[in-house]
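Objective 1b: paired records.
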Amino acid sequence: MAKPKTAEEKNYKIVAENRRARFDYAIEEDIECGIMLEGSEVKSLRTGKAQIAESYAAVEDGELWLVNSYVPPYEQAKTFQHDERRRRKLLVNKRELAKLWSATQREGMTLVPLVLYFNHKGRAKLKIGIAKGKKLSDKRETSAKRDWQRQKARLMKDHG
């Protein structure tokens, strides 16, 4: 018989994941931040059709913004509809914002959204990675390593 889920497990839900980010970038560190959304955006996110693969985060005028993320329109919200690709403000504390600013301006890093999810309290959160772009040879190395892990797992399964 299945164990009943607790309230924490019920509310946690991954909405969108940028799976290509770990292939294209070397993630140095990741930070969880809140995201300011309109009501129709929250309802739309609960359906799980958002996309963050082509988006990025940027520090502008002392604020952190998520640019070019896609949240589809919510069909039941007729009058108060949101813009699908609008810039959304991200919520972090001042110390984290200063760290993000210095990483992008001084060290030449990129802020890449990794996962958009609802936490155990039911609040929308975004995990951002402080990343450095990989060269083509690094991507090949990552791909070769992943293939070897798959092959090794297959051999272990077959020959135990």
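Objective 1b, second protein:
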Amino acid sequence: MASWSEFAADEPRLADGIRLLMQQYGPGFGYLATVRADGGPRVHPVSPVITDEGLFCFVVDSPKRRDLERDGRYALHSFPPEESDDEAYVAGHARPVTDPARVARLARSHRAAPHVDWRLFEFTVDVAMLTRRDAGAAGGPGNGHGRPAVQVWLDPGAPADAPAADPASRLRHHDARREAA
């Protein structure tokens, strides 16, 4: 399980692209998928915090927090941009941050309300994906037409049978162009 910092050091351009999509509206905004007690998926909007130190989320007392406390598997997807069909996705495991100094520092710097019952989780990165549409005429973000450029990073330290990705495709880095569905 790689930390966000390890992933970003290994693939800085991919990490920057994912960070830009997650923070396109200012503070982080995305959809967090967790695993319910019955094994089904649960999806909620969240505000992920991406720093040089890692990928974090302040999670209030809720079913999603109980999911993360019980079974740390997660997937995080960016909120769709208005001007394109670009998307970012990361998945891995969430673990509570227990170092009081680290919690306090991140809470201060990201203005986490001290009177709210939240817990800070750090998200490891087993797989990261960025999908961009062909650039528009001005060379800016994708315009939503044409073939997507997909870049995938898989944690090179993960076991070959890790559930985050198909074991047959355990390539360290994979850039592919594919037809839109």
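The helical segments are 4-10, 12-22, 63-70, 100-109. The beta strands are 30-35, 41-46, 49-51, 54-60, 73-78, 87-96, 118-123, 127-132, 149-154, 173-177.
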